Every structure is written in structure tokens, then in C-alpha cells.
Amino acid sequence: MQKIKNIAVIAHVDHGKTTLVDQLLQQSGTYEAHQEVQERAMDSNDIEKERGITILSKNTAITYGDHKINIIDTPGHADFGGEVERVLKMVDGVLLLVDAQEGVMPQTKFVLKKAIGFGLIPVVVINKIDKDGSDPDRVMDEVFDLLVALDANEDQLEFPVLYAAARDGYAKWEMEDENKDMTPLFDAIIDKVPYPVGSPDADTQAQVFTLDSDNFVGRIGITRIFNGKIKKGDEYLLVKADGSKSKSRVSKLIGFKGLDRIDINEAEAGDIVAIAGFSDIDVGDSVCDKTNPVALDPMHVEEPTLSVIMSVNNGPLAGQEGKHVTSNKIQERLEKEMETNIAMRMEPMGDASFKVSGRGELQIGILAENMRREGFEFMLARPEVVTKEENGVKMEPFEHLVVDVPEEFQGVAIEKLGKRKANMTLLTPMPDGTIRLEFEIPARGLIGFRNEFLTDTKGEGIMNHSYLEYRAYTGTVVSRTPGALVSMDDGEAVAFSIFNLQSRGVMFISPQEKVYSGMVIGESARPGDLDVNPLKGKALTNMRTSGTDEAVKLVTPRKITLESAMEWIEEDELIEITPESVRIRKKSLDPVVRKRQARDKKNSK
Ligand SMILES: Nc1nc2c(ncn2[C@@H]2O[C@H](COP(=O)(O)OP(=O)(O)OP(=O)(O)O)[C@@H](O)[C@H]2O)c(=O)[nH]1
Ligand SMILES: [Mg+2]
């Protein structure tokens, strides 16, 4: 029987997980000598590469001496926390990375809490010790305090600690040790992570934690085998979360080796393999012995906290840029997403609209971004938090928020967050002269905050947050103050009109861009929406005769991205998303209807 170690690499966003996995792959000699490997090789999909963040957890395997180490790289961004939760059940240990300068951050707490809950002993890696301003001792104390606060047991409090610079390829037991290579970390994995329990001779029990597909063999389930063996060609029983069962033959069994996948004939308890042959295999399903099936617990992850209504584009420009525009197509695509993405939910709402729920704006935004790249066209409404009722009390999600700001912005940050119902829990002066402020804040208060915060801190503030828990609803929180500049006509925007409108606020559009009545073309400098005409072109001649040689000088418009739009829009607005454009519009395009709505709203206050 092969000696196996199964680990997940967990941390706050950007603390160096994927870079560390690169080094483990390289230094274990898993790659062939001639193999060319990209930096952060595990971040393999397009959006991951573009943004330099991990979105999906992925597994790889290395050999070290006589051991096989299965490694799962996980995403650090709070919105993808569900990915971390579902893989923790598949491993016997975690490497917890903590940035030697930033220290414990909101997502460090979230992932460590989950790992402790699964009874795992973390191998703590204080990473980026090469950074100026790194303070490994302080960070080590923070990790210890956090474990105490999380009610870690005695074994967990005896966690091993290493100091590393993943990027530079070394880890060591003591700061005084020489910077050499990753050997100490390999040794720590072998010594400190327990071997899988379970027996290859017992009846087969395995569980799917990731889905994949292959043009030739169809759906593939990446599974952890907890007991028994899986053999190519043999028949097994697939048990779903709802208890339904179906029998199928394993048509292909795939093992992992570095970034490669290899055909194998057999795998046994403790290992992680991919299987094909089960056409309706899903995340969380158990693969069991067909005569004595004992299913594993279905996976539970935290429920979504944010939802947004996605609907068919019904604006005047609908159908011009997208390939898939119908309600049926959108529904099909969303259903497919929900099969693999267990942290998200979808609910048809009638009227060609769907409620899509997830952990945050980024998670929903990435799904929308993927869809537009696939040729979809649709609209999104303003994100709303998912509230629920407990014992007759309305509850809403709260987040743990950490902001790092230069001292001079401390006041404005506290003031603005106060208005958004944040409660300050800690204020720590950091060694680099900045101030770290910690808050507990209703998730609602964070919607649209990032932009305001960056403006207030002149781009120098850093904010991080992650899900805390549901608490009693806190009443109204403030939203966007500036109104929208709304086009009152259909056509192509004219440079001169845009030039004239610039004094009214910040423009979102460029000349020749298509606009329509009810489309938002800028942010007004004042509260309240303003209907404006971006099509007036005749004045251009006046410009010339007035004797100025200067061409019309246009300020570069503010670029509307999917995520900035999700942050910006109000309840009476929508985002129109196509493969080519992201536009903002009023829900009702008719100015008369809008006036009446505005009046009704005012009267009701
Ligand atoms: N100075 C320094 N930078 C590092 C080190 N390790 C990683 N980085 C840098 O930190 C950044 C983030 O690295 P990643 O490996 O993508 O971090 P991650 O934890 O996988 O990020 P997510 O998956 O998005 O949560 C990259 O720019 C790395 O080059 C290190 O030891 N020292
Ligand atoms: Mg990563």
C-alpha cells in the first residue's frame, strides 16, 4: 500500500498559497526536466490568470521520497469560502499560510475556524518573511491567540510553525536558520499530517468534491476514497444527497501527477482520483460498494448571504451583441452552474428572471463574467443580502471587516462606517505607521462601500472582510448619495454634448457610443437623478466659429465594469450585460413613469 498524505493549503487572499504549491511541485521533482511550467500553474483558468487570484480549488499530487502527497490549492477570497469548506473534509491536514506582515486577516479566521471544526491540526507557515516590515513573532502570536479564541483543543494548540518565503522557494523551522529550500516543509507534512484512516479491504466508500468534464468520457468526479478500492471497469453504486441511487461502471480512472492526469486501473483508500462513467455524478455524491452501500454524509457549506435577480435583457439594444439571450438558455446555464457550485443557489422567479445567490458580489460577478464570455446577454439588479427569520426575529448576515488606513484617514473611515452601522471592535497601530481598524458590520452596509472607501483614503486604504454570522436586522443603512445622469433620447452620443455634460458630473460613456432613453450615462455631482441629452450635436459649428482652435476636450469616462456597476447601482436601476458591453439603466425607461415613482417615494417618506 502506498503511503499517502492529503493536505489543503488555506489562507487569506494573496498570502501565497498558489505560489507555495508551485514550489512544492518544482522541488519535489514532479515535473519532467523539459517541462515548461508557468508561474502559479494551478491558477489555470482565464479569469484566474487575468486577475492573479484563485477561484476554484484544484488538486495536484507530488511524490516525495516514498510518499505521495495530494495537495488541494484553495481560493483565499472570502466569496469563494465555500470552495474551502468542501475540500476540508477530503484532507487529513492543512497548511495554514499567514503573511508575515499582514498577519491574521478576516479570511484567515474563517478558514482556520472551519479547519479546527473538522479536527485538523494546522501546519502554520508564516510566509513572505522576505518582505520589508514583516514581523513573524507578532504574526505567530496572532495565530496562537486566534486558535485559543476558536477553542482549539490541546493537540491543535501544539501546531508546528515554519517560516517561509514561498516565492523564493524556502521554508525553515527557525528564523535563524539558513534560507535553503522547502525540505523542512516537506518533512513537516510527512511528520505532522496524519495518514488517512480507512482500510483498502473494507467496502468501497468515496465522495466527490469537484466536478470536471472531458470531451471523450463526459462528466468526471474527483473523489476522495475513504474505504476500499475503486477499479476501472467495476460497477459501483452512486448515492446522491437526496438518497437516490444509481448503478454504473467506472469507464475511466484517472490519477494525478503534478499537472498531468494519468490513466490508472486501480486506486485505494486514502487516495484522490477522478472517475468517469457516472453520467449524473455531482459534488457531494458518494460512490459505494454495490452490495453493501454505506453513503457518506452529504456536504454542508454555509448558506449564501447575497442574492441578485438576473433577468432577460429587455432594453432597446437587446439581442444585438449576445448569442444566448432567452430565458431558457439562461436557466439552463444557471442550472449547470449550481450542479458544481455548491455554495450558490438559483431560484426561478417568473417573468424571465432568476434569483442567484452566493457569498458575495465577486462570486456572483465571476459567474456573470463567465456567462458573458460564453456569449450570454442578460440584466442584473442590485445585490441584496439574504435575510432569514429565527424565532420570529428578522436576521441578516454580518461580516468581520478589517481596514488598514494611513493615520490621517482614520477619522473619515470610522465616521463613514459608523453611518453604515459598523461597530468597531479593535484599533491597532501597525509597525508601518498605518492603523488597523476592525469592525463587525451588516453585510448590507458593505454594498457599495469599497468605492467610497478608496476615494476617501485616496486609494491608500486596504479593506478585507469575511462572513461572520447571522444577527438581528439593524434597520436602514445609507446608500449611494449622487444621482444618475440619465439619457433622454435614443441614438449615438455626441462629443460636444458629452463635453457640456462634464460639468454636471462624471461621465460613463464616450462619443459614438449607443445610448437610449433611460440609460444611465454618468454620475451626477448632486443627489437626485437628472435627465440629460447626450445627442445634441449642432453646437459643434458654434464652437468653430467662436475662434477657438482647441478641439473639444473630453475627460476620460469612468469605465463601468461588471463589479463596479454592481457596487454602484440603486434599487431602481439595472445592469445590462452583453459579451461586448456593460451598461447601467433605469429599471423603467419611461421618464414619466420614473417621475411618478420618484414622487411616490418622496411622499411615502
Ligand atoms: N514577497 C513575497 N511575495 C510573495 C511570496 N509568496 C507569494 N508572493 C506573492 O504574493 C502574491 C500572491 O500570491 P499567490 O500565490 O497568488 O497567493 P494566493 O494565496 O494563492 O492567492 P489567492 O489564491 O487569490 O487567495 C503574488 O504576487 C506572489 O508573487 C513570498 O514569499 N514573498
Ligand atoms: Mg491562489
Short description:
The protein is α+β, with helices and mostly antiparallel strands and 605 residues long.
How would you describe what is shown here?
By secondary structure, this protein is an alpha+beta fold. About 25% of the residues lie in helices and about 35% in strands. The chain has 16 helices and 35 strands. The strands form 6 sheets. Strands 18, 19, 20, 21, 22, 28, 30, 32, 33, 34 and 35 form an 11-stranded mixed β-sheet that branches. It has an 8-stranded antiparallel β-sheet with strand order 12-11-17-8-9-16-13-14, with no helix packed on it. Strands 2-3-1-4-5-6-7 form a 7-stranded mixed β-sheet, with helices on both faces. The longest helix is centred in the N-terminal third of the chain and has 14 residues, at about 135-150. It starts with a strand and ends with a helix. The structure holds guanosine-5'-triphosphate and magnesium ion. Magnesium ion binds near residues 17, 18, 43 and 54.
